[in-house]
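User: Reviewer 2 asked us to show a designed sequence for the structure in our supplementary figure. I'm pasting the structure tokens here. Could you produce the per-position amino acids so we can include them in the response letter?
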């Protein structure tokens, strides 16, 4: 991991112009409170989801992320929440937890960056207890052909400057390839967001 990826990208992602933007924060408020019990958060990053958990429903949050620098930024957000937060500094494809050991897997704006999504999702399915939920919130491939063309054109450049982020991934397809069945799904373009990066998918999935 180079200097740019280690030190610059986490701060860009944390900013109000990227994953800290108001439309994205509003999406988090809708999705994160659905988590319950022992939670594995994939790509916890700088902890932007932490304030949106419902403490009355949470036993513990285990945050998985390859960037220790991001977790340093998140330190203050993990204090005084009413539940324990543990950080595991490993890539999303590697989940060092026992099978059937978490009640919820939460993944927000992270499937776009994980290199091997199928392996990562299979790992999420392994650690999720029977009947547990994978709660997801992602941006991805838009339904409009004109936007799709721009996504495909921009993607090679975008992923180089945005920490490996892809703007054209088909989120429901990735979930199915990873062994999940989507139970609830909503989609929309986020307001005040470039359309090539603003088409959102969110909902709930379980083991197929």
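Assistant: Here is a per-position design you can include in the supplement:
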């Amino acid at each position: 991991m180079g200097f740019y990826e280690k030190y610059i990208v986490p701060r860009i992602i944390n900013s109000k112009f990227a994953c800290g933007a108001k439309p994205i924060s509003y999406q988090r408020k809708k999705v994160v409170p659905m988590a319950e019990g022992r939670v594995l958060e994939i790509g916890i990053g700088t902890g932007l989801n932490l304030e949106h958990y419902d403490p009355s429903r949470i036993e513990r949050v285990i945050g998985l992320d390859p960037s220790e620098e991001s977790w340093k930024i998140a330190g203050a957000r993990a204090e005084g929440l009413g539940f324990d937060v543990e950080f595991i500094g490993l890539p999303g494809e590697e989940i060092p937890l026992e099978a059937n050991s978490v009640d919820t897997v939460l993944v927000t704006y992270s499937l776009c960056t994980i290199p091997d999504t199928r392996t990562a999702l299979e790992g999420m399915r392994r650690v999720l207890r029977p009947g547990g939920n994978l709660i997801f919130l992602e941006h991805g491939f838009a339904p409009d052909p004109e936007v799709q063309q721009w996504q495909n054109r921009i993607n090679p450049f975008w992923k180089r400057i945005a920490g490996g982020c892809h703007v054209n991934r088909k989120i429901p397809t990735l979930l199915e390839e990873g062994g999940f069945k989507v139970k609830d799904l909503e989609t929309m373009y986020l307001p005040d967001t470039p359309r090539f990066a603003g088409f959102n998918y969110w909902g709930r999935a379980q083991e197929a």
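For the response letter, you might also mention the following. The CA atoms of residues 38 and 60 lie 5 Å apart. Residues 3-207 form a domain with the Rossmann fold fold (CATH 3.40.50.150).
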